[in-house]
Structures are given as C-alpha cells and as structure tokens.
C-alpha cells in the first residue's frame, strides 16, 4: 500500500534512486534540498511523469527551518542526506557535526510529525574500520573510533551510533533501521558524479595510469535504493533495530579495471594494466587529496558481507561485474566519458 515518504537529500546519487523507486511504486515523495532555487526545477524535470507526487522542501541538516513542513503528512522517512566529499576536510567537524546533528534533527522532526518508521542511510564506514588484523565484516561489526579513523568514517559511525542512542532514549517504539552501503556504483542520472562513480570514470578515461594496490566492496545504487524501499515496507519485526549492509563483492582496483577492459573493450587502451607502486601513491598523496585517502588503504582487505541483508530483505544483489558494466555504459550514454 503506497503512502507518503520523506527522502532527505533528493539531489544526491542514492537519494535520487530511492525517489525513483518510490515514485515507480506509486508513493508520494517529499524530499529536502539545501537550495530550492538551485535544485527544484531539475528534480521536477527528472520526475516530470510523477507530477503532483513529488514535493520539494528546503531544509539544511544544520538548521531547524523547513523540517516540520517536509515531514508533515509522511508515513516514513528515508534519511539519506549527509556530506560525502571527495577529499579530506581540514576540520573533521565539517563532516561529523552535520552528519550527526542532521540525523538527530531528522529523527526529532519525524517523531514530532508522528512518523514511526525511519530508515537511516549509514555506511560500511560505520562497520569496517579501526579494527586491526580483521578483514571480513558483517552487520554485527562496528568501526572502532579509538584507533583514529578518517573524518568521513567518523562522521558515519557517530551519526549511526547517535541515532540508535537517540531512538533508544526518546522513541523506543520507532521502527528504526540503517542501510550500510559499501562503495556505490551503477547507472548515473547526470554528470554530478558521486565520489565512488568518479573512480570508474577515472579508470575509463585514462586519468589513473596505474591501479593503486587498493580494493573496495562494490554495491549497486539500485540495490541500495531497493534496500531502503524494502526496509520501509517490511513487517516491523523484520527490520526494527536492524543494520543492512549492501555489498556484493570485494574487488581490487586492478580487478575493476580488468572488468572494464573485458566488458567495454573500446576503453582498453586507456584502462590501467599495471599496478602503481605503493611508494608512488605515498608520494602523490603529498599533492593529491584523493591519493591521501588511498594511502591508508594500500593492501587492505575490508570485505563486508551483504548476505544478512539479502536473506532478511529477500532479494539478491546485482553482480559487481554487471554493476561496473552498467556504470560504464551509463557514463558513455550521458556523454560524460567519450571513447
Ligand atoms: P551525494 O550524491 O553527494 O549526496 C549527498 C546528499 O546529501 C546531497 O543531496 C546533498 O545535498 C545532501 N547534503 C549534504 N550536506 C547537506 C547539508 N548540510 N544539509 C542538507 N543536505 C545535505 O552522495 P550519495 O552517494 O548519494 O550519498 C548519500 C548517502 O549515502 C550519504 O549519507 C553517504 O554517506 C551514504 N553512502 C554513500 C556511499 C557511496 O559510495 N556513494 C556509500 C556508503 C554510504 P546538496 O545537493 O545540497 O549538496
């Protein structure tokens, strides 16, 4: 039975896909953006076939303005908005504060509006970091902040922990769960690329001449959005308090490059075939913010299992190879990467 759902962060990669799937299922969707002047027309253009079922509200994670109106009349919230930058900020609080306060603000206004189902977009960042000598993780694991982790990892961990503590203390009847995606890939809507998709673009267009000795888990944006929708629709006892990692497979960057080469041979000439020596990554990290982030990940395996999510929510994830191929095809179809 379709109702009305608030999706925060409708301009984002994941938020957009969640809206897509909800509208396709007949829901009415409220979404928040930071600037209506910048985004409202683009959103209405994207979903012009769902006229009247998409309502756009202006609300920032750092201010109370607009949140009551956005929540009014909604049956559930998918809280997706959170800062997700490419580089590392000088001050970690530029990420940690909006992620945490924004989540608590979203929870508080949902409760005030009488909404009883809240799905938070957390991250594998809240699962798989700060734990020495461990390389396989699942929904029961938590990032250990005492080991000192990068600001984005901290922001997602603190946001999820705070949300769970807040629900336990203030809204114990609320049906709260988190979706914890690993790196998200898949079809794009426009050239406003998320940090993870940017990596595939760089593999395709020759801007990574050699593959760093680094790996990531892959999940498809369509599977991430489906997890949100299923978590909104599932019986309360299946999802209350749950954590749902979405993760299909761990891949080394070299394997991702090989997948691009095999599935889109027209890019073979530009796709890296050799591994970048670790010392070079460390050297480049002195000048390039994205290399700085990679430096700490050299040789690490962080294999997060999504099996629990597949089992509880009842569907199977798209294979990582298919996801990479669909990312490539979509980047080409939108003219973002040219052969
Ligand atoms: P994205 O495309 O950058 O979207 C982020 C969204 O958050 C945008 O709509 C952005 O709005 C909004 N936002 C950021 N700061 C805000 C603020 N202060 N007030 C209000 N809105 C704000 O990133 P994404 O990949 O879709 O990520 C969405 C969520 O998934 C985030 O919570 C992220 O941590 C999580 N996640 C992403 C990945 C991934 O690989 N993509 C993996 C795991 C978890 P503006 O348009 O105004 O900037």
Automatic annotation (TrEMBL):
Family designation: Belongs to the NAD(P)-dependent epimerase/dehydratase family. Dihydroflavonol-4-reductase subfamily.
Domain NAD-dependent epimerase/dehydratase: 5-244
Organism, scientific name: Pontixanthobacter luteolus
Keywords: Oxidoreductase
Protein name: NAD-dependent epimerase/dehydratase family protein
UniProt-recorded Gene Ontology molecular function terms: oxidoreductase activity, acting on the CH-OH group of donors, NAD or NADP as acceptor
């Amino acid at each position: 039975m379709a109702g009305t759902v608030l999706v925060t962060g409708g301009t984002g990669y994941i938020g957009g896909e969640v809206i897509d799937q909800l509208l396709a299922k007949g829901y009415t969707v409220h979404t928040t953006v930071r600037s209506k002047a910048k985004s409202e027309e683009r959103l209405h253009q994207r979903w012009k076939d769902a006229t009247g079922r998409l309502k756009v509200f202006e609300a920032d994670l750092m201010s109370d303005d607009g949140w009551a109106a956005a929540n009014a009349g909604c049956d559930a919230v998918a809280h997706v908005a959170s800062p997700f930058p490419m580089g590392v900020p000088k001050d970690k609080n530029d990420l940690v504060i909006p992620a945490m306060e924004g989540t608590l603000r979203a929870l508080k206004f949902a409760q005030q509006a009488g909404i009883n189902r809240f799905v938070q977009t957390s991250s594998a960042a809240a699962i798989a970091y700060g734990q020495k000598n461990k390389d396989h993780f699942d929904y029961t694991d938590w990032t250990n902040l005492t080991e000192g982790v990068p600001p984005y990892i901290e922001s997602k961990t603190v946001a999820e922990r705070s949300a769970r503590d807040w629900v336990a203390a203030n809204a114990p009847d609320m049906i709260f769960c988190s979706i914890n995606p690993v790196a998200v890939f898949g079809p794009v809507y426009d050239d406003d690329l998320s940090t993870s998709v940017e990596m595939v673009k760089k593999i395709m267009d020759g801007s990574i001449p050699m593959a760093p000795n680094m790996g990531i888990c892959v999940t498809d944006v369509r599977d991430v959005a489906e997890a949100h929708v299923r978590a909104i629709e599932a019986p309360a006892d299946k999802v209350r308090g749950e954590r749902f990692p979405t993760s299909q497979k761990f891949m080394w960057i070299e394997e991702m490059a090989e997948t691009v080469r095999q599935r889109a041979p027209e890019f073979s000439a530009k796709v890296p075939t050799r591994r970048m020596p670790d010392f070079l990554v460390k050297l480049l990290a002195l000048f390039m913010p994205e290399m700085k982030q990679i430096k700490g990940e050299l040789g690490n395996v962080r294999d997060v299992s999504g099996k629990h999510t597949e089992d509880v929510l009842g569907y199977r994830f798209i294979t990582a190879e298919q996801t990479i191929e669909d990312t490539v095809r979509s980047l080409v179809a939108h003219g973002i990467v040219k052969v």
